[in-house]
Design a protein that fits this description.
CATH class of the largest domain in chain A: Alpha Beta
Order of helices and strands of chain B: EHEEEHEHEHEEEEHEHEHEHHEH
Number of strands of chain A: 17
CATH architecture of the largest domain in chain A: 3-Layer(aba) Sandwich
Radius of gyration of chain A: 26 Å
CATH topology of the largest domain in chain A: Rossmann fold
CATH architecture of the largest domain in chain B: 3-Layer(aba) Sandwich
CATH superfamily of the largest domain in chain B: Succinyl-CoA synthetase domains
Shape of chain B: globular
Strand content of chain B: 15-25%
Order of helices and strands of chain A: HEHEEHEEEEEHEHHEEEHHEEHEHEHEHH
Number of helices of chain B: 10
Distance between the termini of chain A: 41 Å
Number of strands of chain B: 14
Structural class of chain A: alpha+beta
Structural class of chain B: alpha/beta
Largest sheet of chain A: 6 strands, antiparallel
Largest sheet of chain B: 7 strands, mixed
Helix content of chain B: 25-40%
Number of domains of chain B: 2
Largest interface: A-B, 64 and 63 residues
Radius of gyration of chain B: 19 Å
Strand order of the largest sheet of chain B: 3-4-2-1-5-6-7
Distance between the termini of chain B: 19 Å
Oligomer: heterodimer
Number of helices of chain A: 13
CATH superfamily of the largest domain in chain A: Succinyl-CoA synthetase domains
Strand content of chain A: 15-25%
């Protein structure tokens, strides 16, 4: 789960990291009031959970409260990558001398957290990583020791920061690492961490991604979820513990397990079809989940046929079959469906489907071929 | 004819009295796995599975009474970390964690601790292991594989079954099948398992089933190219998946590689691996 910039910066501030003065506004007149409090000059920043806000015109500099109101009106009316802007952050404008990148994430290969820094911060940081990797410095953190001060100092000296900023930088690095740990984040980054003209360090922008598996022990953070930012279908899927990503094809897919779901899409595509979605019903797919998954797939107007591929391990095929029948009871729309069930209790599952006159396929390739053929018949119709 | 588990495996089941724990323990027993003990705190003294398996309150007690040499855990995510640490402290050399949904930071800590304790972990969020005809630890359906010379290692769960099923229908037997789990931080990696298969005299070839994300397949490819003498066939899931949601800049920087299927396939092919376009095409690529 991603946090907004303003939410991320509030967490930073709670861990002693200096952030610009400012607040969130839902309306243009609120933005004007905040700009007045800040002394007139202010930055208006769209709060949306996608990258590329700046390039889309979602970050604007206002010279006066009047201009802040005008710019906030524009930004609040925007859509950035299809997401409507509902909130703006109104921040004090900073005089920037240097932009630093500072981030913490987990290094999958080393299997420990890693802190990464670069004096070439800002939006082009990934470009720097590709073209100029020696400009990126990093330290790996022992999970039992945490980030030590000397490690933060090593980052500061490797970046050749001015000596008088070392201790403040170490304090910020330590605060960022604590933010990462305390929130059970998978990513906490300040980009840019600026050195201002007056020589202060300030976290101008930030991003935090939380580990969904750990949200149960952070009820306060879980409440920060911005449900306005999710597609309705994805919100519905999450409610039932399903993983769903809408795509542009016409063959709806329901599969148990992410790897098999991707493989099923690969097979459909290799045989000339286009999957309409990725949908993982998870292990132990219970009747209720399968029913919800079918409703979500059928809500997509582009779907011309559906391929169900359930390979039972922890998932019991008889439960899946009952789920399919249950889901079909509530559905009017006629979309042809091809079902493949293999694994635990498969004979019972197939019998339940056969008794209800639903077609089954033996192999994955055969199931994909049948689903593609059915979608083409539907399209002609 | 196998790696890690065989007919001499003496299995302890953590969380044996839960819904999944009892269901899959019954399946494992039916398959012939020697389940010597179960552990559920508060249920010590009970007998389950028609009185065949004694339940203990702690792993220490179960170990003292039964001499188990492998543990499998169905314990729910919130308690799974403790279950793994408890098993490692009781000197179990091999832990298999089926549980999904364990926070990454917990796994980083557990993984570091187990390394220091010298315990091997398979998983978490994995289907476990199967040595056909001898022993099944976890949830892989037993009836979809026969004994034979092909080693199978996979990051996926159900996709592994798909591949086992395809091998079986083509008359290909399996030495051991290991699902290492799809989480970002896992105990045993592709590389570890490839080393074991390379050293196992009864494994003649290996099937490696990967998926998008991370760089484990690339590191496996390096080992295959440099040190493996046995042929490897692979399938990488997600060849047609749209670029996933990015993990911010730090994720892109640290992973170095793109995590894309195309990069993994290129790395494997340059190491001499035959990569199948569909799971069902794997058997015909085995020599």
């Amino acid at each position: 789960m991603k946090l907004h910039e303003y939410q991320s910066k509030q967490l930073f501030a709670q861990h002693g990291i200096p952030i610009p003065r400012g607040r969130v506004a839902m309306t243009a007149s609120e933005a004007r009031t905040i700009a007045e409090e800040l002394g007139g000059r202010a930055v208006i920043k769209a709060q949306v959970l996608v990258g590329g806000r700046g390039k889309a015109g979602g970050i604007r500099l206002a010279g006066s409260p009047e201009e802040a109101e005008e710019l906030a009106t524009q930004v609040l009316g925007m859509r950035i990558k299809e997401l409507p802007v509902r909130k703006v952050l109104v921040d004090e404008a900073a005089e920037v001398q240097t932009e630093i990148y500072l981030g913490v994430t987990n290094d999958r290969a080393a299997r420990v957290p890693v802190m990464i820094a670069s004096v070439q911060g800002g939006i082009e940081i990934e470009e720097v990583a590709r073209k100029d990797p020696e400009r990126i410095v990093r330290v790996w953190v022992d999970p039992f020791l945490g980030l030590r001060e000397y490690q933060a100092r090593n980052l500061a000296t490797s970046m050749e920061l001015p000596r008088q900023l070392w201790s403040e930088f170490a304090r910020i690095a330590s605060g960022l690492f604590k933010t990462f740990l305390d929130a059970d984040a998978t990513l906490a980054e300040i980009n840019p961490l600026v050195i201002t003209r007056t020589g202060q360090l300030l976290a101008l922008d930030g991003k935090i991604v939380l580990d969904d598996n750990a949200l149960y022990r952070h009820p306060g953070l879980a409440d920060l979820r911005d449900v306005d930012e999710e597609a309705a279908s994805e919100r519905e899927a999450r409610k039932y513990g399903l993983s769903y990503v809408k795509l542009n094809g016409d063959i709806g897919c329901m599969v148990n397990g992410a790897g098999l779901a991707m493989a099923t899409m690969d097979v459909i595509k290799s045989l000339g079809g286009e999957p309409a979605n990725f949908l993982d019903v998870g292990g132990g797919a219970a009747a209720e989940k399968v029913a919800a998954a079918l409703q979500i797939i059928l809500a997509d107007e582009n779907v011309r046929s559906i391929l169900l591929n359930i390979f039972g391990g922890i998932t019991r095929c008889d439960e899946v079959a009952r789920g399919i029948l249950m889901a079909l009871q509530g559905v009017r729309r006629e979309v042809p469906m091809v079902i493949r069930l293999v694994g635990t209790n498969e004979e019972e599952g197939r019998k339940i489907l056969a008794d209800a006159d639903l077609p089954t396929a033996a192999s994955l390739n055969e199931a994909a071929r049948l689903a593609i053929a059915a979608s083409q018949v539907e399209a002609v119709r | 004819m196998s790696i890690l588990i065989n007919k001499d495996t003496r299995l302890l089941v953590q969380g044996i009295t839960g819904r999944e724990g009892i269901f899959h323990s019954a399946q494992m027993l039916d398959y012939g796995t020697k389940i010597v003990a179960g552990v559920t705190p508060g249920k010590g003294g009970d007998w389950v599975l028609e009185g065949k398996v004694p339940v203990f309150d702690t792993v220490d007690q179960a170990m003292a009474a039964t001499g188990a040499n492998c543990s499998v855990s169905f314990v729910p995510a919130r308690f799974a970390v403790d279950a793994m640490l408890e098993a490692a402290d009781a000197q179990l050399p091999l832990l298999v964690c089926i549980t999904e949904g364990i926070p990454i930071q917990d796994m980083i800590m557990v993984r570091e601790y187990l390394d220091r304790a010298g315990a091997r972990l398979i998983g978490p969020n994995c289907p476990g292991l199967l040595t056909p005809g001898e022993c099944k630890v976890g949830i892989i359906p037993g009836h979809i594989a026969e004994p034979g010379p092909v080693g199978v290692v996979s990051r996926s769960g159900t996709l592994t079954y798909e591949v086992l099923y395809a091998l079986q229908r083509n008359g290909r037997g399996v030495s051991t099948c290991i699902g290492i789990g799809g989480d970002p931080v896992i105990g045993t990696t592709f590389l570890d398992v490839l080393e074991l298969f390379e050293a196992d005299p009864h494994t003649e070839s290996v099937v490696l089933i990967g998926e998008i994300g991370g760089t484990d397949e690339e590191r496996a490819a390096e080992f295959i190219g440099d040190q493996m003498t046995k042929p490897v066939v692979s399938f990488i899931a997600g060849q047609t998946a749209p670029p996933g949601k990015r993990m911010g800049h730090a994720g892109a920087i640290i992973e170095g590689g793109s995590g894309l299927a195309s990069d993994k396939i290129a790395a494997l092919e340059s190491a001499g691996v035959s990569v199948a376009t569909t799971p069902e095409a794997i058997p015909e690529l085995l020599t």
